[in-house]
Write a structure and sequence with these properties.
about 150 residues; 11 strands; mainly beta; 3-stranded antiparallel sheet; 8-stranded mixed sheet; glutathione-dependent formaldehyde- activating enzyme (gfa)
Length: about 150
């Protein structure tokens, strides 16, 4: 069994078995998840804040479980990414959709683009030390910046 099938975040456990669908704001890019979907992790890194205007909330799935339709998806490099990632967005409406690390088997999906109900929950925080001074993180007991959260796929 490969790591993607075992779980996209070792140690966090819970994965949704539900298949999911989502889209950008205007509908020019649509996608379907045809495999397990990892619960949501909130990323407070500088790049996500600049990309989203605040922290980003991302689910994830194996790359081979994501099917994208529409011609409006574009990818750009994420210049300060320590994972050599690229970001996918809709050129028609500007919606941020995906974060794809060069060295991983999983692709992150902007949680807000998923159709409801998702059945997902927030399970951790990435880069919490980079959170904005306006972004007071709750004392929610969720993992922060440890191996279970930052190592999406190793």
């Amino acid at each position: 069994m490969d790591r993607a099938a075992e779980g996209l975040l070792p140690g966090l456990g819970r994965m949704s078995d539900a298949r999911a669908r989502g889209r950008c704001l205007c509908g020019a890019v649509r996608y379907e998840v045809r495999g397990p979907l990892r619960d949501v992790v909130v990323c407070h890194c500088v790049e996500c804040k600049r990309w989203n205007g605040t922290a980003g909330a991302y689910a994830a799935t194996a790359r081979n479980a994501l099917v994208v339709t529409g011609e409006a998806l574009r990818w750009i490099g994420s210049p300060e990414s320590d994972r050599g990632a690229k970001r996918g967005f809709c050129v028609e409406c500007g919606s941020s959709l995906f974060w794809d690390p060069r060295d991983g088997v999983a692709i992150s999906i902007a949680a807000g683009t998923l159709d409801r109900p998702t059945g997902l929950r927030t399970v951790g925080h990435w880069y919490s030390r980079q959170a904005g001074d306006y972004d007071e993180l709750p004392d929610d007991g969720l993992p922060r910046d440890d191996a279970r959260v930052t190592a999406v796929t190793s």
